[in-house]
Design brief:
Rossmann fold; 9 helices; globular; 285 residues; 8 strands; alpha/beta
Length: 285
């Protein structure tokens, strides 16, 4: 059911709203909402080869005080995976902004994990009126911080990949070798096409090549929290210090955690997030 402007109908509902599909620019975009509608809004943006489900352990810790909105970027999760659309970071960010407009969100703290933090940065550049503050979780500030993977590249002829290939691909997303990767995260890679996987990863590289994230964020004047697992095996955790060039940035390193603190230790991650969002969120009247 939709309102007259085509946005999902919410009625007078103030609790968990579940998931819905928004049609944006002719493509279906999957969105999840949890928590009270009149609470301050958080937008959670996943990284490459992931989806809204990557945030599952964290969401229950945020919803008592926030309206939590998650989006499957185009090419991921339950969103459309067309071969003839742009996966450039500014276009992904534009769609995320359109989704918030359709959900009638006027201000949100935007939280991105890994390359989702790059999308969050692009959204803040495009829509400074919409983004009240930013949190980047294990988002490398520039390509110089990237740790080249040793896993074998999966070519088009090998698609869809085997479970073992996906485990090798995903293993550096966690702090230690042998981490039991949840089956649903394996599914997220398998449900992508080879084109959407490679196009989205290339888009992140292209965006970071043009300008580093600290250089993009510094002139925006947005409150910034950077969280980094110290044992990240994809981005050098020492590179988190580069964000200190952003005026007022708060950088937190989490010892013993890797690239995905949102799953490895959601409680510690939520502690930092809630302290930050309580200060910088706007309540809906």
């Amino acid at each position: 059911m939709t309102d007259s402007d085509g946005s999902p109908h919410m009625g007078n509902y103030t609790g968990t709203t579940g998931s819905s599909i928004l049609t944006l620019d002719g493509d279906d975009i999957h969105v999840c909402q949890d928590g009270p509608r009149d609470a301050p809004a958080l937008l959670l943006i996943h990284g490459s080869a992931s989806s809204t489900r990557s945030w599952d352990p964290l969401v229950p810790l945020l919803t008592p005080s926030h309206r939590v909105i998650r989006i499957d970027l185009l090419g991921h999760g339950r969103s459309a995976k067309p071969a003839d659309r742009s996966y450039a970071l500014p276009d992904q960010a534009r769609r995320a902004g359109m989704a918030l407009d359709r959900l009638r969100v006027e201000h949100a703290v935007v939280i991105g994990h890994s390359s989702g933090g790059v999308v969050a940065t692009a959204l803040a550049e495009q829509r400074p009126d919409l983004v009240s503050a930013l949190t980047l979780i294990n988002t490398g500030p520039g390509l110089g911080a990237f740790i080249a993977p040793q896993s074998v590249t999966i070519g088009p002829s090998q698609w869809p990949p085997t479970d073992e290939q996906i485990r090798q691909f995903a293993s550096t997303g966690f702090s230690r070798a042998g981490y039991q990767i949840p089956p649903e995260l394996l599914d997220e890679v398998r449900c992508m096409t080879h084109h959407t996987l490679t196009a989205t990863m290339q888009a992140t590289r292209d965006y970071l090549e043009q300008q580093s994230l600290p250089d993009r964020l510094a002139p925006l004047g947005k409150p910034l929290l950077v969280i980094f697992g110290e044992d990240d095996r994809r981005w050098r955790s020492s590179s988190a210090a580069d964000y200190r060039t952003v005026p007022g940035a708060n950088v937190e390193l989490l010892p013993g955690l890797g690239h995905s603190p949102i799953r490895e230790d959601p409680s510690s991650t939520a502690t930092f997030l809630l302290a930050f969002t309580t200060t910088h969120s706007a309540r809906v009247d």
